Amino acid sequence: MRTVELTQDQAEVAMKEWNNSHTAPADIGREWLDMRAELTAFYNTYSKARGLEFDRYYLDVHMGLALSEYLRQRDFTLRQAADDGMWRFLSLRVVPDLVARRWPRDTGEHYYKRPTRNWLRSIWWYVYLSWQGDADSTEKVLGSPNFSTDTILNLEERTGRKGTYVGVYRQIMSIYSRIPADRLKDINARLGGADSHTTLFRAVMKLNTARCLAVEPSLYPGGTKEYVKSLFDEFRKYGMQAEWYPK
Question: What is the pTM of this model?
Answer without folding.
Answer: 0.94
